[in-house]
Amino acid sequence: MIKRPDYLELLKTAVHHSPITALLGPRQTGKTTLAHMFADNKPATFFDLESIPDQRRLQNPELVLGNLEGIVILDEIQLMPELFGTLRVLVDRPGQKARFIILGSASPEIIRNASETLAGRIEFVDLNGFDLAEVGSSNWESLWMRGGFPRSFLAENEADSLTWREGFIRTFLEQDIPQLGIQIPATAMRRFWTMLAHYHAQTWNASELSRAMGLSDKTVRGYLDVLTGAFMVRQLQPWYENMNKRQVRSPKVYLRDSGLLHSLLNIGDMNTLLGHPKVGASWEGYVIEQVLQILRPKEAYFWGIHNSAELDLFFYKGKRYGMEVKFSEAPEITRSMQTALHDLDLSHLWVVYPGANAYQVEKKISVLPLQKVPELIRQF
After folding, report:
1. Which residues pair with 305 in a beta bridge?
2. Do the Cβ atoms of 238 and 250 come closer than 8 Å?
3. Structure pTM?
4. Which CATH superfamily includes the segment(s) 5-126?
Protein backbone atom coordinates (compact mmCIF):
# COMPACT_ATOMS: atom_id res chain seq x y z
CA MET A 1 0.00 0.00 0.00
CA ILE A 2 1.29 3.47 -0.89
CA LYS A 3 1.05 5.83 2.05
CA ARG A 4 -0.45 9.27 1.53
CA PRO A 5 0.83 11.36 4.46
CA ASP A 6 0.10 14.77 2.88
CA TYR A 7 -3.59 13.95 2.42
CA LEU A 8 -3.80 12.50 5.93
CA GLU A 9 -2.42 15.78 7.26
CA LEU A 10 -4.92 17.79 5.20
CA LEU A 11 -7.73 15.60 6.52
CA LYS A 12 -6.49 15.99 10.10
CA THR A 13 -6.43 19.77 9.78
CA ALA A 14 -9.89 19.92 8.19
CA VAL A 15 -11.46 17.68 10.85
CA HIS A 16 -9.91 19.81 13.57
CA HIS A 17 -11.26 23.03 12.05
CA SER A 18 -14.78 21.99 11.02
CA PRO A 19 -17.48 19.65 12.34
CA ILE A 20 -17.98 18.27 8.82
CA THR A 21 -15.26 17.45 6.29
CA ALA A 22 -16.03 16.50 2.70
CA LEU A 23 -13.42 14.25 1.08
CA LEU A 24 -14.09 14.49 -2.65
CA GLY A 25 -12.56 12.97 -5.75
CA PRO A 26 -13.17 10.57 -8.62
CA ARG A 27 -14.33 7.07 -7.89
CA GLN A 28 -11.47 4.64 -7.23
CA THR A 29 -8.90 7.22 -6.10
CA GLY A 30 -8.79 5.76 -2.59
CA LYS A 31 -11.18 7.96 -0.60
CA THR A 32 -12.50 5.06 1.46
CA THR A 33 -9.02 3.70 2.10
CA LEU A 34 -7.77 7.12 3.18
CA ALA A 35 -10.73 7.63 5.52
CA HIS A 36 -10.10 4.25 7.15
CA MET A 37 -6.39 5.08 7.52
CA PHE A 38 -7.31 8.37 9.17
CA ALA A 39 -9.79 6.69 11.53
CA ASP A 40 -7.38 3.91 12.49
CA ASN A 41 -6.88 3.75 16.28
CA LYS A 42 -9.63 6.33 16.78
CA PRO A 43 -13.23 5.77 17.93
CA ALA A 44 -15.03 5.67 14.58
CA THR A 45 -18.26 4.52 12.93
CA PHE A 46 -18.44 3.81 9.19
CA PHE A 47 -21.51 3.84 6.92
CA ASP A 48 -21.32 2.70 3.28
CA LEU A 49 -24.37 4.26 1.64
CA GLU A 50 -24.14 1.83 -1.29
CA SER A 51 -24.86 -0.94 1.23
CA ILE A 52 -28.53 -1.80 1.70
CA PRO A 53 -28.03 -2.74 5.39
CA ASP A 54 -26.34 0.60 6.07
CA GLN A 55 -29.14 2.44 4.29
CA ARG A 56 -31.61 0.66 6.57
CA ARG A 57 -29.55 1.60 9.64
CA LEU A 58 -30.07 5.23 8.64
CA GLN A 59 -33.84 5.15 8.19
CA ASN A 60 -33.99 7.43 11.23
CA PRO A 61 -30.70 9.27 10.65
CA GLU A 62 -31.10 11.98 13.29
CA LEU A 63 -31.57 9.39 16.03
CA VAL A 64 -28.79 7.07 14.85
CA LEU A 65 -26.15 9.69 14.05
CA GLY A 66 -27.04 11.90 17.00
CA ASN A 67 -26.00 9.21 19.50
CA LEU A 68 -22.55 8.66 18.00
CA GLU A 69 -19.22 10.01 19.20
CA GLY A 70 -15.77 10.22 17.62
CA ILE A 71 -15.34 10.04 13.85
CA VAL A 72 -18.43 9.25 11.75
CA ILE A 73 -17.70 8.41 8.09
CA LEU A 74 -20.48 8.51 5.50
CA ASP A 75 -19.28 7.01 2.21
CA GLU A 76 -20.96 7.89 -1.13
CA ILE A 77 -23.00 10.66 0.48
CA GLN A 78 -24.52 11.68 -2.86
CA LEU A 79 -26.74 8.57 -2.69
CA MET A 80 -28.60 10.01 0.33
CA PRO A 81 -28.68 13.81 -0.14
CA GLU A 82 -31.37 14.08 2.54
CA LEU A 83 -28.58 13.55 5.11
CA PHE A 84 -27.26 17.06 4.53
CA GLY A 85 -30.17 18.57 6.43
CA THR A 86 -29.74 16.04 9.23
CA LEU A 87 -26.04 16.86 9.55
CA ARG A 88 -26.80 20.57 9.83
CA VAL A 89 -29.20 19.93 12.70
CA LEU A 90 -26.74 17.64 14.50
CA VAL A 91 -23.63 19.83 14.31
CA ASP A 92 -25.60 22.86 15.53
CA ARG A 93 -26.57 21.07 18.72
CA PRO A 94 -24.66 22.18 21.84
CA GLY A 95 -22.25 19.52 23.07
CA GLN A 96 -22.16 17.57 19.80
CA LYS A 97 -19.24 15.11 20.18
CA ALA A 98 -19.01 13.58 16.70
CA ARG A 99 -16.94 14.85 13.76
CA PHE A 100 -18.37 13.85 10.39
CA ILE A 101 -16.40 12.91 7.27
CA ILE A 102 -18.49 12.61 4.13
CA LEU A 103 -17.05 10.94 1.03
CA GLY A 104 -18.34 11.42 -2.48
CA SER A 105 -17.53 11.14 -6.15
CA ALA A 106 -20.20 13.43 -7.58
CA SER A 107 -18.75 16.77 -6.56
CA PRO A 108 -21.30 19.14 -8.18
CA GLU A 109 -24.15 17.54 -6.22
CA ILE A 110 -22.23 17.53 -2.95
CA ILE A 111 -20.91 21.07 -3.30
CA ARG A 112 -24.36 22.42 -4.18
CA ASN A 113 -25.99 20.70 -1.20
CA ALA A 114 -23.15 21.72 1.10
CA SER A 115 -23.22 25.35 0.04
CA GLU A 116 -26.99 25.53 0.50
CA THR A 117 -27.28 23.53 3.72
CA LEU A 118 -23.91 23.36 5.48
CA ALA A 119 -22.45 26.81 4.90
CA GLY A 120 -19.91 27.66 7.59
CA ARG A 121 -19.91 24.11 8.93
CA ILE A 122 -17.94 22.20 6.30
CA GLU A 123 -14.41 22.05 4.89
CA PHE A 124 -13.43 20.38 1.60
CA VAL A 125 -10.45 18.15 0.82
CA ASP A 126 -9.99 17.07 -2.81
CA LEU A 127 -8.31 13.69 -3.27
CA ASN A 128 -6.49 13.08 -6.55
CA GLY A 129 -4.77 10.01 -7.92
CA PHE A 130 -1.18 9.19 -7.02
CA ASP A 131 1.47 11.83 -7.69
CA LEU A 132 5.24 11.69 -8.03
CA ALA A 133 5.84 12.59 -4.41
CA GLU A 134 3.85 9.51 -3.38
CA VAL A 135 5.07 6.88 -5.87
CA GLY A 136 8.68 8.06 -6.07
CA SER A 137 10.22 10.23 -8.77
CA SER A 138 11.96 7.26 -10.38
CA ASN A 139 8.52 5.92 -11.38
CA TRP A 140 7.59 8.97 -13.44
CA GLU A 141 7.35 7.06 -16.75
CA SER A 142 4.97 4.44 -15.34
CA LEU A 143 2.85 7.14 -13.69
CA TRP A 144 2.70 9.05 -16.98
CA MET A 145 1.72 5.98 -18.99
CA ARG A 146 -0.78 4.47 -16.56
CA GLY A 147 -2.09 7.54 -14.74
CA GLY A 148 -2.64 8.00 -11.03
CA PHE A 149 -5.65 5.80 -10.29
CA PRO A 150 -4.31 3.30 -7.73
CA ARG A 151 -5.53 0.13 -9.45
CA SER A 152 -4.25 1.31 -12.80
CA PHE A 153 -0.84 2.35 -11.51
CA LEU A 154 -0.36 -0.75 -9.32
CA ALA A 155 -1.50 -3.28 -11.97
CA GLU A 156 0.89 -6.16 -12.62
CA ASN A 157 1.43 -5.24 -16.27
CA GLU A 158 0.42 -2.74 -18.96
CA ALA A 159 -2.36 -4.98 -20.30
CA ASP A 160 -4.01 -5.26 -16.87
CA SER A 161 -3.70 -1.51 -16.35
CA LEU A 162 -5.30 -0.78 -19.72
CA THR A 163 -8.12 -3.26 -19.03
CA TRP A 164 -8.86 -1.60 -15.69
CA ARG A 165 -8.97 1.87 -17.25
CA GLU A 166 -11.32 0.75 -20.00
CA GLY A 167 -13.62 -0.74 -17.38
CA PHE A 168 -13.47 2.48 -15.37
CA ILE A 169 -14.45 4.57 -18.41
CA ARG A 170 -17.40 2.31 -19.12
CA THR A 171 -18.59 2.31 -15.51
CA PHE A 172 -18.21 6.07 -15.26
CA LEU A 173 -20.31 6.64 -18.38
CA GLU A 174 -23.00 4.06 -17.64
CA GLN A 175 -23.34 4.47 -13.86
CA ASP A 176 -21.63 7.57 -12.46
CA ILE A 177 -22.99 10.08 -14.99
CA PRO A 178 -26.63 8.99 -14.42
CA GLN A 179 -26.05 9.27 -10.65
CA LEU A 180 -25.33 12.95 -11.24
CA GLY A 181 -28.88 13.24 -12.52
CA ILE A 182 -27.61 13.89 -16.06
CA GLN A 183 -29.40 12.06 -18.82
CA ILE A 184 -26.73 11.89 -21.51
CA PRO A 185 -26.46 8.67 -23.56
CA ALA A 186 -23.24 6.84 -22.71
CA THR A 187 -22.32 6.56 -26.39
CA ALA A 188 -22.64 10.32 -26.92
CA MET A 189 -20.54 11.14 -23.86
CA ARG A 190 -17.93 8.54 -24.85
CA ARG A 191 -17.68 10.14 -28.28
CA PHE A 192 -17.34 13.62 -26.78
CA TRP A 193 -14.76 12.45 -24.23
CA THR A 194 -12.72 10.81 -27.00
CA MET A 195 -12.87 13.94 -29.13
CA LEU A 196 -11.82 15.97 -26.12
CA ALA A 197 -8.78 13.71 -25.76
CA HIS A 198 -7.71 14.78 -29.25
CA TYR A 199 -8.08 18.44 -28.18
CA HIS A 200 -6.13 17.84 -24.95
CA ALA A 201 -3.91 20.83 -24.02
CA GLN A 202 -5.63 23.15 -26.50
CA THR A 203 -7.76 26.21 -25.85
CA TRP A 204 -11.48 25.48 -25.72
CA ASN A 205 -13.32 25.91 -29.01
CA ALA A 206 -17.00 25.08 -28.55
CA SER A 207 -17.93 25.82 -32.15
CA GLU A 208 -15.39 23.40 -33.58
CA LEU A 209 -16.46 20.56 -31.30
CA SER A 210 -20.17 21.26 -31.73
CA ARG A 211 -19.85 21.12 -35.53
CA ALA A 212 -17.94 17.86 -35.34
CA MET A 213 -20.62 16.28 -33.12
CA GLY A 214 -23.64 17.89 -34.76
CA LEU A 215 -24.69 19.54 -31.50
CA SER A 216 -25.15 23.09 -30.26
CA ASP A 217 -22.38 25.09 -28.57
CA LYS A 218 -24.45 25.11 -25.39
CA THR A 219 -24.76 21.31 -25.38
CA VAL A 220 -21.05 20.61 -25.78
CA ARG A 221 -20.30 23.25 -23.15
CA GLY A 222 -22.64 21.35 -20.83
CA TYR A 223 -20.82 18.10 -21.58
CA LEU A 224 -17.51 19.80 -20.73
CA ASP A 225 -18.87 21.10 -17.43
CA VAL A 226 -20.14 17.61 -16.53
CA LEU A 227 -16.68 16.08 -17.01
CA THR A 228 -15.05 18.99 -15.18
CA GLY A 229 -17.36 18.69 -12.20
CA ALA A 230 -16.72 14.94 -12.03
CA PHE A 231 -12.93 15.50 -11.81
CA MET A 232 -12.24 14.06 -15.26
CA VAL A 233 -11.29 17.33 -16.97
CA ARG A 234 -9.38 20.41 -15.86
CA GLN A 235 -10.23 23.80 -17.35
CA LEU A 236 -7.14 25.94 -16.82
CA GLN A 237 -8.33 29.53 -16.98
CA PRO A 238 -6.41 32.33 -18.73
CA TRP A 239 -4.66 35.09 -16.80
CA TYR A 240 -5.26 38.67 -17.96
CA GLU A 241 -2.20 40.84 -17.36
CA ASN A 242 -2.09 43.56 -20.00
CA MET A 243 -5.48 44.58 -21.34
CA ASN A 244 -3.84 46.42 -24.24
CA LYS A 245 -2.66 43.14 -25.76
CA ARG A 246 -4.83 40.64 -27.62
CA GLN A 247 -4.83 37.93 -24.99
CA VAL A 248 -6.27 34.42 -25.12
CA ARG A 249 -9.53 34.41 -23.16
CA SER A 250 -10.75 30.82 -23.49
CA PRO A 251 -9.62 28.14 -21.02
CA LYS A 252 -7.20 25.38 -21.94
CA VAL A 253 -8.69 21.93 -21.54
CA TYR A 254 -6.84 18.92 -20.12
CA LEU A 255 -7.89 15.40 -19.24
CA ARG A 256 -6.69 15.25 -15.65
CA ASP A 257 -5.53 11.63 -15.66
CA SER A 258 -2.90 10.77 -18.27
CA GLY A 259 -3.81 7.07 -18.13
CA LEU A 260 -7.42 7.76 -19.12
CA LEU A 261 -6.17 10.08 -21.87
CA HIS A 262 -4.02 7.29 -23.30
CA SER A 263 -6.90 4.82 -23.14
CA LEU A 264 -9.20 7.16 -25.05
CA LEU A 265 -6.45 7.68 -27.65
CA ASN A 266 -5.85 3.90 -27.93
CA ILE A 267 -2.28 4.22 -26.64
CA GLY A 268 -1.41 0.96 -24.89
CA ASP A 269 2.31 1.20 -24.13
CA MET A 270 5.22 3.61 -23.89
CA ASN A 271 6.57 2.87 -27.37
CA THR A 272 3.21 3.75 -28.90
CA LEU A 273 3.00 6.89 -26.78
CA LEU A 274 6.46 8.13 -27.81
CA GLY A 275 5.53 7.78 -31.48
CA HIS A 276 2.07 9.31 -31.16
CA PRO A 277 1.37 12.85 -32.47
CA LYS A 278 -0.19 13.78 -29.10
CA VAL A 279 2.88 12.85 -27.04
CA GLY A 280 3.81 16.50 -26.45
CA ALA A 281 0.28 17.41 -25.39
CA SER A 282 0.12 14.36 -23.12
CA TRP A 283 3.42 15.36 -21.51
CA GLU A 284 2.20 18.93 -20.97
CA GLY A 285 -0.99 17.84 -19.24
CA TYR A 286 0.81 15.26 -17.13
CA VAL A 287 3.43 17.74 -15.91
CA ILE A 288 0.87 20.45 -15.15
CA GLU A 289 -1.28 18.04 -13.16
CA GLN A 290 1.75 16.84 -11.17
CA VAL A 291 2.81 20.40 -10.38
CA LEU A 292 -0.67 21.39 -9.23
CA GLN A 293 -1.09 18.26 -7.09
CA ILE A 294 2.32 18.54 -5.43
CA LEU A 295 2.63 22.32 -4.94
CA ARG A 296 -1.11 23.02 -4.45
CA PRO A 297 -1.06 26.72 -5.36
CA LYS A 298 -4.21 28.60 -4.41
CA GLU A 299 -4.38 30.17 -7.88
CA ALA A 300 -3.13 28.77 -11.18
CA TYR A 301 -3.61 29.90 -14.78
CA PHE A 302 -2.08 29.83 -18.21
CA TRP A 303 -1.19 32.99 -20.11
CA GLY A 304 -1.15 33.69 -23.81
CA ILE A 305 -1.14 36.49 -26.37
CA HIS A 306 -2.57 35.59 -29.79
CA ASN A 307 0.19 34.80 -32.30
CA SER A 308 2.84 35.82 -29.79
CA ALA A 309 3.98 34.81 -26.31
CA GLU A 310 2.50 32.18 -24.02
CA LEU A 311 3.17 30.43 -20.71
CA ASP A 312 1.87 26.95 -19.86
CA LEU A 313 1.42 27.56 -16.14
CA PHE A 314 1.35 30.73 -14.04
CA PHE A 315 0.77 30.46 -10.30
CA TYR A 316 1.11 32.20 -6.95
CA LYS A 317 3.07 30.80 -4.03
CA GLY A 318 3.70 34.02 -2.12
CA LYS A 319 5.29 35.36 -5.30
CA ARG A 320 4.61 34.96 -9.01
CA TYR A 321 6.07 31.88 -10.71
CA GLY A 322 5.83 30.34 -14.14
CA MET A 323 6.41 26.98 -15.79
CA GLU A 324 6.90 26.07 -19.41
CA VAL A 325 6.61 22.38 -20.33
CA LYS A 326 8.82 20.97 -23.09
CA PHE A 327 9.04 17.39 -24.34
CA SER A 328 12.64 17.71 -25.41
CA GLU A 329 16.01 16.47 -24.19
CA ALA A 330 17.51 19.92 -24.77
CA PRO A 331 14.84 22.61 -24.31
CA GLU A 332 15.66 26.04 -25.68
CA ILE A 333 14.93 29.33 -23.97
CA THR A 334 12.60 31.20 -26.30
CA ARG A 335 11.61 34.80 -26.79
CA SER A 336 8.13 33.80 -25.59
CA MET A 337 9.58 32.79 -22.20
CA GLN A 338 11.47 36.06 -21.95
CA THR A 339 8.28 37.98 -22.69
CA ALA A 340 6.35 36.03 -20.05
CA LEU A 341 9.11 36.60 -17.50
CA HIS A 342 8.97 40.36 -18.11
CA ASP A 343 5.25 40.95 -18.67
CA LEU A 344 4.14 38.79 -15.73
CA ASP A 345 6.94 39.99 -13.43
CA LEU A 346 7.85 36.41 -12.49
CA SER A 347 10.18 35.70 -9.58
CA HIS A 348 11.30 32.56 -11.43
CA LEU A 349 10.43 30.48 -14.49
CA TRP A 350 11.12 26.75 -14.71
CA VAL A 351 11.26 24.81 -17.96
CA VAL A 352 10.19 21.25 -17.10
CA TYR A 353 11.49 18.50 -19.37
CA PRO A 354 11.95 14.67 -19.31
CA GLY A 355 15.74 14.78 -18.94
CA ALA A 356 17.90 14.03 -15.91
CA ASN A 357 19.84 17.21 -15.14
CA ALA A 358 18.73 20.48 -13.55
CA TYR A 359 20.62 23.62 -14.52
CA GLN A 360 20.27 27.38 -14.47
CA VAL A 361 20.12 29.20 -17.80
CA GLU A 362 19.64 32.75 -16.62
CA LYS A 363 19.18 34.44 -13.27
CA LYS A 364 15.43 33.79 -13.26
CA ILE A 365 15.15 30.83 -15.67
CA SER A 366 16.03 27.22 -14.84
CA VAL A 367 15.65 23.92 -16.66
CA LEU A 368 14.15 21.31 -14.34
CA PRO A 369 13.66 17.54 -14.79
CA LEU A 370 10.17 16.36 -13.88
CA GLN A 371 11.78 14.08 -11.28
CA LYS A 372 12.88 17.19 -9.35
CA VAL A 373 9.42 18.78 -9.16
CA PRO A 374 8.64 17.27 -5.70
CA GLU A 375 11.77 19.01 -4.38
CA LEU A 376 10.37 22.44 -5.32
CA ILE A 377 8.11 22.36 -2.28
CA ARG A 378 11.19 23.20 -0.17
CA GLN A 379 11.48 26.57 -1.90
CA PHE A 380 8.07 27.83 -0.80
Report:
1. 247
2. yes
3. 0.92
4. P-loop containing nucleotide triphosphate hydrolases (3.40.50.300)
